[in-house]
Design brief:
Layout (H helix, E strand, L loop, with lengths): L1 H66 L4 H14 L7 E6 L4 E4 L13 H8 L5 E2 L3 E2 L6 E11 L2 E11 H9 L8 E5 L5 E4 L3 H4 L9 H4 L5 E7 L6 E8 L6 E7 H24 L3 H34 L1 E6 L6 E3 L1 H6 L11 H7 L2 H17 L3 E8 L5 E10 L8 E7 L1 H64 L5 H32 L5 E4 H15 L5 E5 L4 E4 L1 H18 L6 E11 L2 E8 L31 H11 L3 E7 L3 E9 L15
Parallel strand pairs: 18-20
Antiparallel strand pairs: 1-2, 1-6, 3-5, 4-5, 5-6, 7-8, 7-11, 9-10, 10-11, 12-13, 12-16, 14-15, 15-16, 17-19, 20-21, 21-23, 22-23
Helix pairs in contact: 1-2, 1-7, 12-13, 13-16, 14-15, 15-16
Length: about 700
């Protein structure tokens, strides 16, 4: 008996120590796994910061690139604005390089002429298209420090014309990486897609000029976006757990390494406590019964929790009308959850499910579709997701959604999935489809009515204009005859009244013509094509100069401005906008008229016409585009007040817009936008065409 107790005690002690060591190994593995996950999360966080910094730099490069071709003053102003918005120290200096690779500008005050055409980053900018390029670290030929070149190419008429660079000190990037709260031997690195270190939070100077080994996973698979690995550091040889994240735009990789020593250091105290506890338990075998009882208690509690969870899952399936099923084709074994039985109106306690029985319930009109879907799923080894109808025993029809997937444990020979009753949802969808059909019918009917009304309105407009012109010509003709025959018999007041009659008749004729023109523009069919707005503006400017060759006006029309629009209607737009600028600068010395572009934003191309003429009061800006509304007296500037209204209607038909800004005596600016993609107006076509 003593021997048996001794053997039992020895066996129990050995078992206890074995379990203790195994738990420690498991705990160690868990800590390392969590540390690896933490390294990945830290890499994600730092990647977000780096992405933001690169995005800020990219915005600055785009602004500088846009300003460079304009003028040195404009570029200097943009340069000051951009550098003021960047974090202090992020950029050492900026450079502009011509197409041959020679530095033509830098803000260090160093004379231009340095050649960088042999640098890899410049070659990447020359050959890589319009994108942000992050180059490998280079030692600056201007300052001697290690720099990371962040650049954008410049183009002129689609041809590479040089590049604009931000020169980012590697040491500054290293300090940014070092802000991540890590222990002494942990590090954060920024790695070029080619493998070169861009910056390193520890001993950055030693990392410059070095590359990570080619077996790193982010170099092995350039398309991978994130991952983890365990190796010794290439610079200091410290064993670390690494997590990495690739930046989406620049393809730069952020690598976070947590040293094994720092990760496992907090575990040492726990390990010592475990050893002490194991020793105490070894000497107190009498406590084993209580320990086993505690384990049994926990087991019962877990079993009870599992039972409660199963009941909750069944209740959730009942509420969601979702049931679970399994099917083994080899044995024919089929299981249905209680909810599937309820969907089919069966008693789970007496019903015996089968694969063949399910097919018998499938609606006859849906069997062919379901059989084809099952065949495709089996052939391609993909999941099945199919909606079909089932017929219950009482003849009622239900809509169900069948989801199925192969069981990976059974190597594709077993299937499992869910069945959801979606009858109410399907009926709602069908009702919505019927409603949409009815709405579409009503819209088409209303469109036909509007088309007929527009035609009637057009006929009415032409009829009214004709009826107005006949008496108007009579008034003007008789006034002219009176002036020619009896001018000497009229008093000065009579002659003045006669001139007013003639002037009013002419103005009325212009109003009628503008009214007809606006009606025609509203009904004209849009024929969208590529329109060279720069050339169109020059053509209009030539016509305006011919009306008054003696006027001295400085024209500035930007090159390369174009849009997708109707050329005839855009001619009307440019004639009105440039014609207004010509008219309202008539009393301005050193008159100046500009036509320029504002770039693209939110799918729209933006353009402006600006002058330094009479301007207008912004308090009346809401009247600018109202027909026959004028902000100046007729004695000051002639016109009918229809031009801007026509401009607005034409641009709205194209899917664009127009707005005006100005100040009295300081000129005006009218900016308009056109979609980058042509817009087909719903009412621009007849019902038959639709």
């Amino acid at each position: 008996m003593v021997t048996a107790v001794a053997l039992f005690t020895a066996l129990a002690v050995l078992l206890l120590w074995g379990l203790s060591l195994q738990l420690q190994r498991q705990l160690r593995d868990q800590v390392l796994e969590r540390a690896q996950l933490r390294s990945q999360q830290l890499a994600d966080a730092m990647a977000g910061q780096m992405d933001t910094s690169l995005a800020v730099l990219d915005l600055g490069l785009l602004s500088l690139r846009t300003a460079w071709p304009k003028s040195r003053e404009a570029f200097d102003e943009v340069e000051q604005q951009v550098l003021a918005t960047l974090p202090r120290g992020l950029v050492s200096h900026l450079s502009v390089i011509d197409a041959g690779g020679t530095v033509v500008y830098n803000n260090l005050g160093v004379a231009p002429g340095t050649f960088v055409g042999d640098r890899p980053h410049f070659q990447a900018l020359r050959q890589g298209g319009d994108r942000l390029v992050v180059g490998e670290p280079v030692r600056s030929r201007l300052t001697g420090e290690w720099l990371v070149i962040v650049g954008r190419p410049m183009f002129r008429d689609g041809v590479f014309a040089g590049a604009v660079h931000f020169n980012v000190p590697s040491e500054h990037l290293a300090r940014l990486l070092g802000r991540l709260a890590l222990s002494g031997n942990d590090l954060v690195s920024l790695v070029h897609p080619g493998g070169a270190f861009l910056a390193r939070s520890l001993d950055n100077a030693s990392a410059m000029g070095q590359k990570v080994p080619p077996d790193r996973p982010f170099l092995q698979d350039p398309e991978a976006s994130r991952g983890t690995f365990r190796v010794d550091g290439v610079v200091d040889g410290v064993s670390r757990l690494f997590g990495w994240q690739r930046l989406s735009n620049s393809r730069v990789v952020v690598v976070v390494g947590l040293s094994h020593a720092s990760v496992l250091a907090p575990l040492e105290h726990t390990r010592r406590q475990a050893l002490l506890l194991t020793a105490l338990l070894s000497m107190a075998l009498l406590a084993a019964g209580g320990w086993i009882g505690w384990l049994l208690h926990n087991l019962e509690r877990q079993q009870e929790q599992a039972r409660v969870n199963r009941q909750q899952m069944e209740e959730a399936q009942r509420l969601a009308r979702v049931g679970h099923w399994t099917y083994d084709p080899d044995t024919g074994a089929t299981t249905w959850s209680q909810e599937i039985c309820r969907i089919f109106g069966r008693d789970p306690s007496t019903f015996r499910p089968s694969f063949e029985g399910y097919w018998q319930h499938v609606h006859p009109q849906d069997r062919g579709q379901l059989e084809a879907a099952v065949a495709r799923s089996r052939a391609s080894h993909t999941d099945l997701d199919e909606v079909h109808r089932i017929v219950l025993a009482d003849g009622s029809v239900r809509w169900v959604r069948l989801l199925a997937q192969t069981d990976p444990v059974a190597k594709g020979t077993s299937y499992s999935g869910t069945l959801q009753d979606i009858t109410e949802l399907r009926e709602a969808q069908l009702a919505l489809e019927r409603l949409n059909t009815e709405l579409d019918r009503r819209v088409k009917s209303r469109t036909r009515e509007l088309t007929m009304l527009n035609r009637d309105l057009e006929s009415f407009t032409y009829s009214v204009s004709h009826d107005l012109r006949t008496p108007l010509r009579s008034i003007h003709g008789f006034a002219t005859l009176l002036q020619e025959s009896d001018a000497d018999k009229l008093s000065d007041d009579g002659l003045d009244a006669l001139k007013r009659i003639q002037s009013s008749a002419r103005r009325m004729g212009l109003l009628i013509n503008d009214l007809l023109s606006m009606a025609q523009q509203s009904r004209a069919e849009l024929r969208t094509q590529h329109v060279d707005l720069s050339e169109l503006a020059r053509s209009v400017a030539r016509e305006l100069r011919q009306t008054d060759p003696e006027r001295q006006v400085r024209w500035e029309i930007a090159d390369g401005l174009s849009a997708q629009a109707d050329p005839g209607l855009m001619t009307v737009v440019m004639q009105n906008l440039l014609g207004n600028a010509w008219k309202y600068t008539g009393r301005t010395e050193a008159a100046h008229i500009e036509f320029f572009g504002l770039g693209e934003a939110e799918g729209m191309a933006n353009f402006c016409v600006r002058d330094n003429g009479a301007g207008f009061d912004m308090a009346y800006a809401d009247q600018l585009f109202q027909p026959f509304k004028r902000l100046h007296r007729l004695e000051e500037f002639e016109g009918t007040g229809v031009g801007l209204a026509s401009v607005q209607r034409i641009l709205q038909r194209h899917g664009g817009s127009v707005r005006g800004e100005g100040a009295v005596g300081q000129g005006a600016m009218f900016c308009f936008s056109l979609p980058l993609e042509p817009v087909r107006q719903f009412l621009d076509s007849t019902p038959d065409q639709r």
